[in-house]
Design brief:
The structure is a homodimer of 223-residue chains. By secondary structure, chain A is mainly α. Chain A is built from 11 helices and no strands. Chain A folds into 2 domains: 72 residues, Homeodomain-like (Arc Repressor Mutant, subunit A, Orthogonal Bundle); 129 residues, Tetracycline Repressor, domain 2 (Orthogonal Bundle). The structure holds a DNA duplex (30 and 30 nucleotides).
Amino acid sequence: MKSISASRIIHMVNEAHRQPPGSIKAHILVAAKAEFAQYGFEGARMQRVADRAALPKPNIHYHFKSKQQLYLAVLERIIESWNLAFDQVSQESDPAEALEAFIRQKLKQAQQDPAASRLFANEMIQGAPNLKHYLNTSMRSWVQDRALVIKQWMLAGTIGDVDPERLIFLIWSATQHYADFQVQALSLLNRAEFDDPVLTETADFLVTFILRGCGLSPRDRPS
Amino acid sequence: MKSISASRIIHMVNEAHRQPPGSIKAHILVAAKAEFAQYGFEGARMQRVADRAALPKPNIHYHFKSKQQLYLAVLERIIESWNLAFDQVSQESDPAEALEAFIRQKLKQAQQDPAASRLFANEMIQGAPNLKHYLNTSMRSWVQDRALVIKQWMLAGTIGDVDPERLIFLIWSATQHYADFQVQALSLLNRAEFDDPVLTETADFLVTFILRGCGLSPRDRPS
DNA sequence: GTTATTACTGACCAAACGGTCAATATCTTA
DNA sequence: TAAGATATTGACCGTTTGGTCAGTAATAAC
């Protein structure tokens, strides 16, 4: 195995992953995301990435040194874009409103970029070989922050008794599943595609159901 | 592409997939399930299947003609084992009891055979290239039968207002996620492994939460 | 307009891939 | 125990894989 230090790899990736939207690197990253999402790291083929990007294969290798590095660049881009949607919530927020916003946002994310969701799913299924650190640091503290707020809501009596970590995990699973298992969902719901009407119906169901699960009623909306 | 008719493939698979538990074919199928679950079809390597089974590679090819056929045999075995757990439920069943049994059963399945769950997840992520027919026939009618019972419960007022298909999908997602995203769940819950105590806590949470989401209280249990 | 740098690509390579095959061992049954 | 069928395997094959490289085009700097 070539001895390239982890920090050097991370440095190179950091250079590569934030590209102006129209750039060729950004274009390759989009193609690679789709490929890795569908086939996983080992199943992905550099030739197919090139075909998806409509570029010769060596061109891909010019911009990204190796398959591994391309994968890491895609992965970092996804995590970063998810962190941007790091919505603010506090003890003072209304639980129903905050949870509803969170559910709708997660579901919209899953619909707008199912490839990102599937790539992440592949990484988790394989035991997160490239995201173990993320799971034990950023993700964990993010969850703990939110869990603390939920616990405070519980103490204040503005929400029912629920395990906050498991609640967050359930919301993630319920929303992500519509991206990862889209074919199953569409067959089950007898729909052709995951379009806006399906999104709205699904979001409404999830909000109602989960809020009820938390001992809350969904706030009234103009109908 | 070789022209082998679909029925011939299915016939061959049917011959292969039900093996006495101690047989070599069964042993290979277990190894292959783990490999396909972790890497997906394209990412799986026949050599690694052989290594997992502690057999020379040609031995695998003696028992299963091709990678594709081995994969199909594993898939059929999983679907079949899931169909065996086809628990009976009717209009007369108690909704809370029936849902609780369903949730606990699904979660236990996910814990006892996470590889099966992950293999299925991989197949869904790729758009179910080998399970489209299953999704549109067996799975669909299974869901519709259960959905009908849930609708009757709703008419009888023994359960709150919920979209039955989406409820089933949510239960699947919430339970399967603990197998597919096990590393994430363990990190989030600060646990080392998905053992029986975690299983029980998780099942209790899911039962309470989902029943509340359906407008039900979990039936009392001796504590 | 020359030069230096960056971007691109057809042709190629060693290694790994799924799969084969002839030779051998191990069971069945008469 | 001979004969046939089944099971096993070391050595091998054509193809595909991730990746390279020399040569060329395009761009930027002076």
